[in-house]
Design a protein that fits this description.
single chain, alpha/beta, Rossmann fold, Luciferase, domain 3, GMP Synthetase, Chain A, domain 3, nine-stranded mixed β-sheet, five-stranded antiparallel β-sheet, 26 strands, globular
Length: 503
């Protein structure tokens, strides 16, 4: 199968598996044939409005028809931006200001809300667009004008200044990533994926496009089940889900609430995770519960479509050991630079830089931020070669595997020492009685602050940390939380934790 556009995936699977369930949640489902038809009708409605290579905001619930909306935009030769219906209005307005979409595609239930931020963008209602007749020859003409370098979507991430950044990703980036995942993890039509991540989060790219490429079935797991781990595992068993790609926080919730071992999920075969550091202790809980499963740590930012390195957990990892982020994916090149743009090796710490087919184009309508991190490769002066400076600090271990150390902006100078907060988090997370933890540096007070959940006594924690860390790295403040705050992506909400320090 020759794939130029992501819609080529759907064209193929709709022919091979027309009646098979593609995407489903608790309320609805779409077969591959239905998905193609609904996407095509949407596309026809957009083509009739003469939209071409324009941004379209998709403001819908996380449901199967939201995927149809994405694909309808792609069929029409435009590109989409998912906007979560639960997102604060002020953030939506900031995104709209940057994106200036020609239209907001929504459904009947959210039309009124869309009117509050749409501005001059036309509001298009999904249900109304389904009345449009499909003319395949018209869509074929649109497709003929497109290449794999055309933009597929713009996903917005948080910005350090509070202004969201729209990451621009072309078809070829998604295709290169999708092909790698499919080949590396042997994904085929038998895969049943349990989707956890929101559609506006880059991790959902794996779930969506593996389904489209391979004819899998993807179940959108109800968000509320993550508060009831036993019911969550029962849901996985009932749907016979065999593949997960979750953020570590979701996996940790299940492990920390002692749900593992209470429910048998015989179907489960592959457990992938990304988005934040996976504590080795909780990983081992999952490995003990599912000894036959493949576990893999995937690493990468939205700016490289989703992932640039990976580590299949093929050996014992101690509870206090940092989990490697491994080696580069196919179609991704990585190297490490020091602060003087010199090549780093032999275990020294430096910044991870990425290049290759999965690289995004930059930030939408933000050339200043783009030029700061999407730069010419300083090691190559012979021809143009753009790299992405991730801001992630890494080093190689003695096995030649990359280890994540922390963020450049998580690096602090404390008591005359340069400290990576990620190292303190790894040590703290390994302690018995610690469920989740997060380290914040209070610049005003010059103190390292450790937020944590779990039953460990503070005095015991200090004593045990002293055996793992030098004195200057012991947190000055320890703040016990009943629950670790999470952002909409399911990651630990560092912004909220930092806000607590200002009160």
């Amino acid at each position: 199968m020759r794939t130029i556009l992501v819609t080529d995936y759907l064209e193929h699977t709709a022919e091979v598996f027309p009646t098979k369930t593609a995407f489903a949640d608790e309320k609805s489902c779409l077969s591959f044939g239905e998905l193609r038809d609904e996407a095509r009708r949407l596309a026809m409605g957009l083509v009739k409005r003469n939209f071409f290579k324009k941004p379209i905001a998709v403001f819908m619930e996380k449901e199967p028809r939201c995927v149809a909306a994405f694909l309808g935009v792609a069929y029409s030769g435009n590109f989409y931006t998912p906007i979560d219906t639960k997102m604060p209005l002020e953030r939506i307005k900031k995104i709209m200001e940057i994106l200036s979409p020609v239209a907001v595609l929504t459904d009947q239930a959210h039309t009124e809300t869309a009117m509050a931020f749409a501005g001059e963008s036309e509001i298009l209602v999904y249900q109304n667009m389904q009345a449009t007749d499909i003319h395949k020859e018209v869509l074929d003409k649109i497709t003929a004008q497109l290449t794999d370098s055309d933009v597929l979507y713009v996903l917005f991430t948080s910005g350090s200044t509070g202004v969201p950044k729209g990451v621009v990703v072309p078809h070829r980036g998604v295709i290169a990533f999708t092909e790698w995942v499919s080949n590396e993890f042997s994904v085929d039509e038998k895969a049943v994926i349990g989707n956890q991540t929101p559609f506006y989060f880059s991790m959902s790219v794996l779930d969506i496009f593996q389904t489209l490429r391979n004819g899998c079935t993807a179940y959108i797991i109800p968000h509320g089940l993550f508060s009831f781990p036993i019911k969550l595992l029962e849901h996985l068993a009932q749907k016979e889900i065999n593949m997960l790609y979750w953020v570590p926080s979701a996996l940790c919730i299940v492990a920390n609430l002692k749900a593992l071992g209470h429910v048998n999920v015989p179907s489960l075969k592959k457990i992938l995770f990304a988005g934040e550091v996976m504590p080795s202790k909780q990983l081992n809980m999952w490995k003990n519960a599912f000894p036959e499963c493949l576990f893999a740590n995937l690493f990468g930012p939205t700016e490289v479509t989703d992932i640039c390195t990976f580590f299949k957990v093929d050996r014992q990892i101690d509870d206090d050991e940092s989990l490697p982020i491994g080696k580069p994916c196919t179609n991704s090149g990585v190297f490490v630079l020091d602060e003087n743009d010199r090549f780093v090796q032999d275990g020294a710490i430096g910044e991870l830089c990425v290049y290759g087919a999965t690289l995004a184009y930059g930030y939408y309508n933000n050339s200043e931020k783009t030029e700061m991190v999407f730069t010419q490769n300083p090691l190559n002066q012979n021809y143009p070669e753009i790299i992405y400076r991730t801001g992630d600090l890494v080093r190689y271990n003695d096995k030649g595997e990359l280890l994540y150390v922390g963020r450049k902006d998580f690096q602090v100078k404390h008591m005359g020492h340069r400290i990576e907060l990620g190292e303190i988090e790894t040590a703290s997370a390994s302690l018995p009685g610690v469920e989740r933890c997060c380290c914040i540096y209070d610049e005003q007070q010059g103190k390292i602050v450790l937020f944590y959940t779990g039953e460990i006594e503070e005095s015991v924690m200090i004593q045990q940390l002293r055996s793992l860390l030098p004195t200057y790295m012991i947190p000055n403040r320890k703040i016990h939380l009943s629950e670790m705050p999470l952002n909409l992506n399911g990651k630990i909400d560092r912004v909220k934790l930092r806000g607590r320090l200002l009160k």
